[in-house]
Design goal:
135 residues, eight-stranded antiparallel β-sheet, single chain, two-stranded antiparallel sheet, mainly beta, Thrombin, subunit H, 10 strands
Length: 135
């Protein structure tokens, strides 16, 4: 597939507390995903350039969106973050390529702006030790 923008070619689903995937892309206004690797510096004193080893893989996602209390929408998915300790599958597809990660959500923060907007932010972190991989 060719180069792509982030417009219109995206699906985004997050499991609710029961493990049911919910398509909430209509509630998400922006997101950030990261799949970093740890790096260990192993440079010996005999080197004039750095040597490094790749370490553990990680994954993080931050979802930002508009509050939506309709059934099976964003609020239904995240309202249990403070009262349950369940892993949630986050699945993101762009132009037919998919990244799915088992994650834990650590917050469901609501913000009421001075303009009246009611928005949310949800940070998620890799949960199960399986390195993120695009399929």
């Amino acid at each position: 597939m060719a180069k792509s923008s982030g417009i219109g070619q995206t699906t985004l689903s997050v499991d609710d507390a029961t493990g049911t995937a919910r398509a909430i892309k209509n509630d998400i206004t922006n997101w950030q995903m990261s799949t970093p690797r740890g790096v260990q510096d192993v440079t010996g004193v005999d080197k004039s350039g750095n040597e490094r080893l790749l370490l553990l893989a990680d994954g993080s996602v931050t979802l930002n969106g508009v509050f939506n209390a309709a059934t099976n929408q964003a609020h239904d998915v995240f309202k249990t973050v403070s009262s349950t300790s369940v892993q949630r599958t986050v699945t993101h597809t762009v132009n037919g390529v998919t990244l799915a990660m088992e994650m834990v959500a650590s917050d469901y923060a609501l913000t009421r702006g001075d303009d009246g907007a009611l928005t949310f932010s949800v940070p998620l972190a890799l949960a199960d030790g399986t390195p993120p991989a695009w399929a």
